[in-house]
Amino acid sequence: MNFQDLPIAALIQGYHPVGGQLQCNYCTARFSEPEAVITHLNATHGGALDALLTADTKYNTLTETQIRLLQAFSLKQKNQAIADQLGVSASTIRHQKFTFREKAKQARLYLAQYQAVFGDEPTKDYLPIPPMATDNDDRFRITETEYADTTQKYFTFTDAGIVLTRLPKGQKKIITLLYRIADEFSFNTKYPQHEVDTKLKAIYFDYGIIKRYLIDYGFLARTTDNRTYWRIF
Predict the structure, then answer these.
(1) 4-23 pLDDT, tens per residue?
(2) Which residue segment(s) compose the domain that 46 sits in?
(3) Which of 42, 128, 147, 214 is the most exposed place for a label (fewest CB within 10 A)?
(4) Residue 124: count of CB within 10 angstroms of its CB
């Protein structure tokens, strides 16, 4: 997961929208309803809060003690109760709570300074980047708005499915379309080559190039003999 690409609200709730579904921030699981994502987060990742506090990313600089403190604060425990659990004084807990608040104020000021200079928040609502993408560059900096505009422009939506009217020239636009095309494949399903070709041929006449893009940009994987495919993002 690319934490730097998600808005604060999505980080807090533990999931974000992708291609009309809701994807867990900590794995590739997707659901159609918020309740289903929340159930998944609780069962698989210990809940949205614990998953966020213990997130495996270079941007998470919390120590184990700080994580325990924040978990206790989230439960509205009294300072003395937390102090007893950690074997410290209540004044130490009060000081740590003050420190957290000061850091939050510093972060807020820095964000304002950054936006004043660069004219943009560093955490736009970008689509997540496939972990197995061979090249991870600005072509993958795709906002939800860009996704919506591009898919509406290049796809025709019918009862039978989606049809790609033409392939755009820019690679960023092609990658944007791949997010939607990948949704035609289910996770945890193995597809024989002929079934993949049939699915893609219904979307675009040059299905071979679409298949190659899906592989190269980390949406699908395949066996070495090219006979079996499966979705990885």
Answers:
(1) 667 788 888 998 887 678 88
(2) 6-59
(3) 42
(4) 16
